[in-house]
Amino acid sequence: MTSQPLYNIPKGSILKLDGRELTVSVREESGYAVECKETGECFTLPLERVETAIRHRDCEVIKPADVEKRKALLKHTDGLECVAQLSEKDQRIVQARLALVIAQDELRAEGVKLTQRSMNKSGTHRRLLLTRAEKLAPGHNFLGTRRGGKLASGFDVPQGRTLASYRDVYHRFDHNPIVLADRDRMKGRREPRLCEWQEQFIDYVLNCWHDPKQPKLASVYKLATKVFHRSPREMAQDINFPSITTIRTRAKAISDVVTVLGRGGTRHGANTKGAGSTDVRALAFGEKFEWDQCLLSIFTSGDGVVRAEVIDPKEAPQELADNEIRRCWLHVILDVATREVLGWVISETADADHSKALLRMATRDKTKEKVRYGCRQDPVPPVRLGLALADNGTATRNADVYAGQLGMGMAVMTARAHQPMDKQLVERLFGTTQWDVLNFRPGYTGSRPGELTGYEPKPSAEISHDDLYGTLTRYFIDEYPFRPHRGTGMYGATPRQKQEEALQLYGPMEPPSQRDRCLHLGAKVQATTTSEGVRAFNIPFNSTELQRFAAGRPKRVTVHLDPDDLRKVHVTAEGEDAVMEARLSMTVFKDQTLEEAIEILEAATKSNPSLRELHDRHLGEAMKRRALESGFFPDSRDPSSYQTLAQLEARASKLLQVETRPAAYVGATAVPGHLMSRGRTSGVVPARPAGAAPFKPPSPSTPPRASAPPPQSAGPTDVPPGEVSTSAPDPDDIKTMTFGSIKDSKL
């Protein structure tokens, strides 16, 4: 069944839908066949889609007749459609002419026959017409009455012919008052004053002028006249180039946006001429925040005296000296929904450590800053942060900061490079801080190099780094939250008022997790457990759980420390599932931050170095006297004082001797049955010499000798009969020994 259309949309109508102009080609059963004017795309819009858009005021229907009427109107008025486009003076003229036209219509409706002659200055109906017009639009003084002899200053009413033309054109364009305005701007020469090649020359010069190197227009014009090519035919039309004044007039007519983009670049054009954004990007407190860093336009010092000192870059400390003059970085984190400043930090550099310190400040109480710098109002409370928006600078786009944010349960969003509108709120805060706070302090540098031509910022630096931080703290706590804010979605309310409204409408905020804050945003230290617990930055911490884990042995652990709260730390170890907690065992640091505690430790050694040197000398003298009085240490000038060590070395060398078995000595052996015989040669048969009779061992019945000499001594009795003693072999030599046959073996 074909549905009946609800609205009359004839062929050729224009539908302004979804930001596009669609021309209706034909009415189909399922809808309207349309064609996009910009892309030429052809498709079919369902009938319900068009009717629903019309009901919701999302679709504008322009019929073909209306298109032609609008085209004729724009041609008649030179592009004007409504009276609001005119100046106040022209609007008043249109108002007076409209009163004259309506007066003519009313008189004609009453039966008065108005003609051009009767409406002239001496006509019969002129005064009647002016009286009726005065009644309709008082204040224009159509009658030109004089008061006190003064000249009339009313509306100059034209003749009847012009009055009749007003009425005709008014009715021809469907009673649109814009057609009654003067068209003097359309007068003048119709054909162009410059020939075609001169127009090309102007475009050529302006194109060369729109260059990022920003050349001067006069210089470009002079050189362009030398290189611009003209044909003989073009020179015959006009031999002269357009003047520099004509080109300057054309350059002034170009849009400022085009000029900035052409001569300043796309990045500068987007920053200075961007369209901006007016959307409300957050509603609840802590839902979304923006943070950024800015190099402050001010020099800080200890006392404002300029000093010069030669330092070694390898040995120079990273911390600022007391009187070092330099510019500091300001880190700020801003809540989008309420415009409250959640945290602020100044530093020497923009790095990850200070970014994590900024996140810690946003999630902790700031009463300490309030008391330290004398603030009168309460600071913003700590809040659990949601969506983080920052640029891709090195201070915020790094592994440590991203890990800390994700560990805290935040969602990370990175803004585009060189697009300040992505985080326009925190960018605007830097400008407000500069003009409200820094501009009035000594050492202000200006917003750009060379801006302050009669002021020297470095010699004028008087405030210290801590004084600058105190000034910013008082501004962000006492002043900024209570100023009316004209930003998008604020409607003139103060940030503190907007915070209370957000808490009332969207409920209380989520509290930050102190455990996650310490684990993911705190400092990490590798340490070893002892019987006293564990030390981080030379500050002791201990707990029963930690001692139970250590079990009396040194173990390697990682200590997670919150630099803003030293009362407890969290300890993790490799292979240990649980996260242990340890408490501060030195209560003197209970109310101190990590920086304050380290300053206390350093002050004990750095303060008054001359007095410390004197104390070291007194200590050395006292220790020397005690050592001499004890008598334990001999005189180092006496040589006998060193003999004890030599004697000990000699005794130690004797202890190092090791007994070894002689390699060439073999003791005497005995034949079976003569093992217990005392005879030296029992069982030993000397080797016989060449040609001698074989040696026979003595029989068992032969009695042994009364005494046998030791085997080591050789005597005449060892010489066998018939041999000279000098040529007899040594019976102890294994090479000359022979052994008798074994007769009674047990094997």
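the 2nd protein, sequnce then structure:
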Amino acid sequence: MTEQIALWFESLFPSETSRELIAFIVSLFPVLECRGGMIIALAAGVEFLKAFVICYIGNMLPIPFILLFIKKIFAFMKKHGILTKIVLKLEGKTEKHKEKIDKYGHWALFTFVAIPLPGTGGWTGALIAALFNISFKKALPVIALGVLTANIIMSVVTYGAGAVFGF
């Protein structure tokens, strides 16, 4: 699914748009993050190391802002009717991880961010950290390491498969 979304996203850009810029922009988005960025980078022929750095930075760029501002954004959204449902749904999704976070602490947050599966990643990890009142100072390095690990895994999967299968 991530691959289909990433390739659809690439089709939205004019052909003269930088391949690196597209990979960076894709990496900024929730759900896609570095997973989608690495797929786009490989498909576009971006050199591995350049793709790795670009996708990591793209994935990490929104994280500090989520950690710092998501509670204020949610409070604002709750005051505006239809947006309340969205916030309650997101809060409900994070609440189901509370027991694991309470039990395993930072390891649970790291693991959640590091495993490159749909619904996991830096965005959701930052949301969980903010809603469970994990301090910015503690959450940011854990999430950064998790995103780095996810990017390593995706690099092996995408560029490794690309080398094996010749794309």
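The radius of gyration is 17 Å. The first helix runs from residue 2 to 11.
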